[in-house]
Design a protein that fits this description.
It contains ten helices and 15 strands. The protein is an alpha/beta fold and 307 residues long. The chain has a domain of 209 residues. It has a five-stranded mixed sheet with strand order 4-3-1-7-12. It has a three-stranded mixed sheet with strand order 8-15-14. Strands 10-11-13 form a three-stranded mixed sheet, with no helix packed on it. α5 crosses α8. It is globular. It comes from Mesorhizobium helmanticense. This is Nucleotide-diphospho-sugar transferase domain-containing protein. Pfam families: DUF6492 (PF20102).
């Protein structure tokens, strides 16, 4: 095992106290570097109960992100996580502006696909009990303790009930169906729940068991199975594994979203941004400005008082 994943003394101490150790996991890439730097600053200022922060990046981005590394933050090269046969290339179909991951065992994959694979794969290398997933375009604005994800020995599984029974969620339904196929769940068992959000938690040992099940069902590496379809969601796979395979064991459900996200549309003006922050629900402690919308990170810094 890579020595960079050796558990810290803090984790060993937590295990003696039978207190779960929590790690924050962020998958990122070079164009989001300054957003990720802002995440790190606000996480360090506002979030307690974090044993470690793993930032998962493509091999060529490792040197850039090393600037963010410290005793509690590790930059993880995807080559330490994913099979050697899945390799990244500049895509000629995009005039080499975008990256594509190719292999003889999966469909051609984009960056957002591989980021999902990294999030699953880190469970086999990290040693913390709880993995908290936080995108690099998130900024924490309020104090937050990771104990919110743990109750009576169970991890909080984000779930919005019956959402997929409504209109306008066809893509989510496809992700859910593909999750069922990946896990070997009978196709007649249709899930109506949505498990996708920002700032959610998984139980690490459950992730490794999930991967083992996928490999047992299909007789192939789990990356090969998940990557055989281009429409997949790691959150759907995990959620359906917990609810449909484990019948909820080791988890409790919560539908409140801890992060208020601006998902689509135009970049917000200063006044719109202030109204967006003012409209945060009481349980929301962070905001997310989707990076593809193009909100300038310097302006975000200024508006949250860090500029």
């Amino acid at each position: 095992m890579n020595s960079r994943f050796v558990p810290s003394a803090d984790i060993a101490h937590d295990s003696l106290r039978q207190t779960p150790a929590a790690a924050v996991v962020t998958a990122s890439y070079a164009p989001d570097f300054e957003r990720c730097r802002l995440l790190c600053e606000t996480l360090d200022s506002h979030v307690s109960g974090v044993a470690h922060h793993y930032i998962l990046v493509e091999h060529r981005d490792v040197a850039l992100f090393r600037q963010l590394e410290n005793s509690r933050r590790t930059i993880v090269d995807e080559r330490d996580l994913l099979p050697h046969w899945l390799r990244a290339f500049d895509d000629p179909l995009s005039l080499f502006r975008r990256r594509i991951w190719l292999s003889l065992k999966t469909m051609p994959l984009r960056g957002w696909h591989v980021q999902q694979l990294r999030r699953i794969a880190i469970a086999a290398h990290a040693r913390e009990d709880v993995l908290i997933f936080c995108d690099s375009d998130v900024a924490f604005l309020k104090p937050f303790d990771t104990s919110a994800f743990w109750r009576d020995g169970k991890v909080r599984l984000f779930r919005r009930d019956e959402v997929l029974a409504g209109e306008g969620h066809e893509e989510h339904r496809i992700w859910s169906r593909n999750a069922g196929l990946t896990l070997g769940i009978d196709a007649s068992r249709v899930s109506r729940h949505d498990y996708i959000s920002t700032l959610i938690a998984w139980r690490r040992e459950t992730v490794t068991a999930m991967c083992a099940r996928i490999e047992k069902v299909h007789g192939r590496n789990w990356v090969e199975v998940v990557g055989s379809a281009r429409k997949f969601s790691e959150c759907m796979i995990y959620g359906r594994y917990v609810d449909d395979v484990l019948e909820g064991a080791g988890h409790f459900h919560g539908s409140e979203e801890f992060c208020r996200v601006h998902w689509t549309g135009e970049a917000l003006s200063d006044d719109e941004f202030r109204r967006f922050v003012a409209a945060m629900a009481p349980e929301q402690v962070a905001i997310g400005m989707q990076s593809f919308i193009g909100t300038d990170v310097g302006r975000i810094r200024r508006l949250i008082g860090l500029g």
